[in-house]
Design a protein that fits this description.
- This protein has about 230 residues and is of the alpha+beta class.
- The chain has helices at about 5-45, 50-60, 65-70, 90-95, 100-110, 130-150, 210-225; strands spanning about 115-120, 125-130, 155-160, 165-170, 185-195, 200-210.
- The chain has a domain at about 115-225: 2-Layer Sandwich (TATA-Binding Protein), CATH 3.30.310.
- It is about 45% helix and about 15% strand.
- Strands 1, 2, 3, 4, 5 and 6 form a six-stranded mixed beta sheet that branches.
- α1 (about 5-45) packs antiparallel against α6.
- The N and C termini lie far apart (about 60 Å).
């Protein structure tokens, strides 16, 4: 029969391991929240200057946001309710994007030379009447979230002439389902839906595991908000 001391030690180790997992998960959420805040800010700031006037002018383009600004009055630090900001969440100073980050973001989201009209399988979750630039921003947001979830196993890059992203995913060797060289490459593109006045998100597997692609496809479409 185990002694009380050994039982207590076992409970302590389990408790320490659980708290470590919770802490890592919390840190991951904070990093993701910081990334999402940066993306929102960079989408509102001019690639030339990042002063507050440009931000306000960019936000005023949206009737919903401009209405809230008018009713809320001037934006100051004192107008923020600090009671709802948890100490573990990044503050404005830590999430303020640098000029290089703003330039890189606008370079990544530069207008394409062409938006192709393509025949592909689509549904209501992958089509929208919103502007293609906003659809591309949403695709980028979802991929950043997925990249965080999958510990950077997912990588993507912009194809220059189109609203297209080339993506690759390699299954971690630590995963119990991993096999040697198990990966998938696929592309995501904002296209005109043939014969319809809407745009859609087209996903196409280029090479690699069809099973992994199916799982990533389902996860991506489930997170997409068009």
């Amino acid at each position: 029969m185990a002694s009380p001391a050994s039982v207590n030690t076992g409970h302590l180790r389990a408790s320490t391991a659980d708290s470590s997992k919770v802490r890592r998960a919390s840190e991951g959420l904070v990093d993701l929240d910081r990334d999402m805040t940066k993306m929102r800010r960079m989408s509102m700031v001019s690639p030339i200057t990042s002063d507050s006037t440009t931000v306000r002018e960019s936000m005023s383009d949206s009737p919903n946001i401009s209405g809230k600004l008018a009713s809320a009055g001037p934006m100051t630090n004192s107008s923020i309710d600090n009671s709802v900001i948890d100490s573990s969440v990044a503050t404005d100073e830590t999430v303020e994007p640098s000029k290089k980050e703003i330039e890189d973001w606008h370079l990544f989201h530069r207008p394409p030379k062409e938006i192709r009209s393509v025949r592909f399988a689509f549904n209501s979750a992958t089509t929208s009447s919103m502007a293609p630039a906003l659809m591309f921003q949403e695709v980028h947001r979802v991929l950043v979230v997925m990249q965080s979830r999958h510990s950077n196993q997912l990588q993507f890059s912009r194809v220059e002439d189109y609203y297209m992203l080339e993506c690759s995913y390699t299954l971690s060797s630590d995963s119990p389902d991993a096999a040697d060289g198990e990966f998938v490459k696929f592309e995501i593109e904002i296209c005109k839906v043939w014969l319809l006045k809407v745009h859609g998100v087209r996903l196409k597997r280029l090479s690699g595991s069809a099973l992994i692609f199916k799982e990533l496809h389902s996860e991506f479409v489930g997170m997409l908000e068009l």
